Structure formats: structure tokens, C-alpha cells
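FAQ

Q: What does a record look like?
A: Structure on top, sequence underneath. For example:
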């Protein structure tokens, strides 16, 4: 059966991006020890009532054992890409999407265990618009995004300190103990797309 006749097939372009990211990005180098299968889906993919660009998952042990009967190594993780949405992404957006997918995959080299990691930040734009930088994760995201916002000079960004793989500004213990909400205007859809494309 040809790829054009299948609902799911290997997506070589995305797999090449994944291989490059694992090779070049320090945070992903441990993932070189696992097998990641990247497939395209012709079927529509939706989550939370909107188009889903991709989804990642850990392959269950039973599926890995079944897969072992084939010639290839069984995958530890899969990334399923919405083919229709993929076709509309720029090259930089494709790299960003695969970077995001890899960010979900955890691997421990000592015991070979694998797991799925959650997002560093889970927040609604409306909550941020109404409540500002109310949580530590929202403040960290704001500091990471600041140099990427239109009209923001990188040299104007605050000093950075390493924290859990994400660069964040330093805070005194008193500031951390009594955070004050900051008014923050949510970016327009056009600004968000421009910032995403620039990254």
C-alpha cells in the first residue's frame, strides 16, 4: 500500500527535524537513546474543539513487544502530526512544533525508564489578561518570551539565572513570598503569530 493510500504513514521531513533537534539541542541529547516514530495523520485531529497540530505519546509495553516482530526497533515514543496543518506551517514553525513534541518526552539513562512530561505553563489568555503575572510559571513564561515580542530589544531583557532548564530572572525571597499581580495586555492574534514565526 502506497503512503497516499494510507491514513497514517511515516513523515520523513518531521523525523529529520526530530533527529536534528536531538543532535543539536542540549535538553534533548538524552533522547538519542530512545526510538521516536513520527507519523502523519490524514484524518482530522482535534483537541479542545480546535485543530490539533500534533500529539505525542509513550508506546505501551505490549505494543512494543508486538512491534518487535518487525524489522525495525520498536518505538518508545510516537509523534502523530496533523498532515493538513503541517502543510500550512513555515519551516521555522515545523521546527518549533517538533521541539514542543520532544519537550514532552522524558528518559532516565540509569534505568531506561521513559515518561511523558507536562507543560511548564498551563494558563488561559483571559486569566493572564485579567490577573496579570499572578503565578511563578506565568512570570517565568513572561520573562522567557520578552525578548521575542515585537519591538522588544534583547538588550532590554532583565538579567537571567538558570532555573530548571529555563532561564528566569532572579527574585528575592520576599518577592517570591508575596507576588503582586501585574497588569499585562494579552497579545493580539497577529502579534502572537508574528512572535511565533520570528522564533
Amino acid at each position: 500500500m502506497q503512503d497516499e493510500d494510507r491514513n497514517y504513514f511515516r513523515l520523513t521531513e518531521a523525523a529529520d527535524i526530530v533527529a536534528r533537534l536531538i543532535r543539536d539541542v542540549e535538553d534533548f541529547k538524552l533522547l538519542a537513546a530512545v526510538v521516536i516514530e513520527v507519523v502523519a495523520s490524514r484524518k482530522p485531529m482535534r483537541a479542545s474543539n480546535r485543530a490539533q497540530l500534533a500529539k505525542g505519546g509513550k508506546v505501551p509495553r505490549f505494543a512494543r513487544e508486538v512491534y518487535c516482530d518487525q524489522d525495525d526497533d520498536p518505538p518508545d515514543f510516537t509523534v502523530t502530526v496533523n498532515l493538513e496543518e503541517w502543510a500550512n506551517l513555515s519551516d521555522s514553525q515545523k521546527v518549533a512544533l517538533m521541539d514542543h513534541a520532544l519537550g514532552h518526552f522524558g528518559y532516565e539513562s540509569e534505568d531506561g525508564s521513559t515518561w511523558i512530561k507536562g507543560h511548564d505553563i498551563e494558563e488561559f489568555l483571559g486569566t493572564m489578561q485579567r490577573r496579570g503575572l499572578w503565578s511563578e510559571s506565568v512570570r517565568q513564561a513572561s520573562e522567557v518570551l520578552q525578548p521575542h515580542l515585537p519591538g522588544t530589544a534583547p538588550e532590554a531583557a532583565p538579567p537571567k539565572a538558570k532555573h530548571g532548564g529555563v532561564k528566569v530572572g532572579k527574585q528575592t525571597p520576599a518577592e517570591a513570598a508575596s507576588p503582586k499581580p501585574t497588569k499585562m495586555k494579552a497579545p493580539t492574534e497577529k502579534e502572537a503569530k508574528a512572535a511565533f514565526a520570528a522564533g
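Q: Is there anything notable about this one?
A: The chain has two domains: 3-116, 125-198.
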